Amino acid sequence: MTDLPATAKSNAAIYALAILYAIVIGFSFMFTKLALGHADPFDMLAYRFALSFAALAIPVRAGWIRMPPKQKGRPRLPLLLVSLVYPTAFFGLQSVGLDAATTSGAGIFSATSPIFALLLGALLLKEQASKLQLLSVLVSAFGLVFMTGISPDALRGTSAVGGGLILLSAVALALYGVLARGLRHSYSAVELSYAMMRTGCWFFVGLALVRHLAQGTMSALLAPASEPGFWLPLLYIAIMSSLVSSWLSNFALARIEAFKVSLFVNLGNLVSISSGVLIMGDHWSGAQTIGTICMLTGVIGANYRGGLRGAAGSRGTGADSAEVETEAEKVPGRNNGVAASAEPSPEVPDRNKSAVSSA
């Protein structure tokens, strides 16, 4: 059999990893829900990012994962900005917003992330989308909104403040994708992930310590660590949902537009819903079938390569552009590590609303 051209192989690999990314973050909801049975959302985030950072920092310090050599003159502020946007702002806004929003309502507002990613990509990176891609993003967002919001009570229990904070978390997720993509020539995936996990660890562990010291409840912070049922879901969301999904998303963002990667986050919501049906025995409705068709159609349409060259100056369609060069060609040592990152927004209707805060 004749081998596929190198570009076709690269494209197939990129989209295969993007689908794997959707699967990994899709299952995170179920494991997050299990972890939240033993710890409140902010304490769980402290454990999550402490473990994520340790899992990356230890092999880096031991030399098992080599960081690219430091280069003089590279600005550090953009790296800090990315790590403050995600995971800090994203999870902070999402966790607080969910106190005043239902899961279904949060799912509706979070579906706007690909739209924001498309707009921010055009504004900050000058990336241009075709009419088909614009339509595909809207169709995908509609699919998730329809799937989660078909009930007439979908927004009941969601206040304006709660909805606004969830919407801001969707903007934060989109902004992370655009900023990380903008730094793809300056920093490797492992550098981005290291900075994000370190900032997330410092922020959420510091928040948990200050909160429990002020309340005199340090024993409550330490209690989940003594429960065996807490560690398996924690390991999944810390290692798979943070580290592995981060490497996958950073890898994809170096090669395809941010709004396309955001569509795979929405696809992860579909994986989460499907896992609830197949594993947890949740009900599958006709609305979910329609929403699934719309979401899949949107992802396929946005990534369709035929005739998608936009106006003059377009950066191309991502995976088939010149940016498919290897990471090692962009940043010395970039291919030597594993990284960490973006996650899904709230997904599944009619479930425990606090569970989504870290999915």
Structure description:
66% of the residues lie in helices and 0% in strands. The protein is mainly α and 359 residues long. The protein has one domain (6-358). Helix 11 packs antiparallel against helix 12 (286-302). The longest helix is centred in the first third of the chain and has 30 residues, at 6-35. The chain starts with 5 loop residues before the first helix and ends in a 29-residue tail after the last helix.
The H-and-E topology, N to C, reads as HHHHHHHHHHHHH
For the secondary structure, the number of strands is 0
Helical stretch tally: 13
Instruction: Tell me the structural class.
Output: mainly alpha
| Total domain modules | 1
Q: What composes the largest sheet?
A: none
Low-confidence runs: 1-5, 306-359
Radius of gyration: 20 Å
The amount of beta strand, in percent, is under 5%
Please give a quick description of this structure:
The protein is mostly helical and 359 residues long. 66% of the residues lie in helices and 0% in strands.
Supply the key terms.
359 residues; mainly alpha; 66% helix; 0% strand; globular; disordered N terminus; disordered C terminus
List the helices and strands and how they pair.
Layout lengths: L5 H30 L5 H22 L14 H22 L4 H8 L2 H12 L6 H19 L10 H23 L6 H27 L2 H5 L5 H26 L4 H21 L7 H17 L24 H4 L29
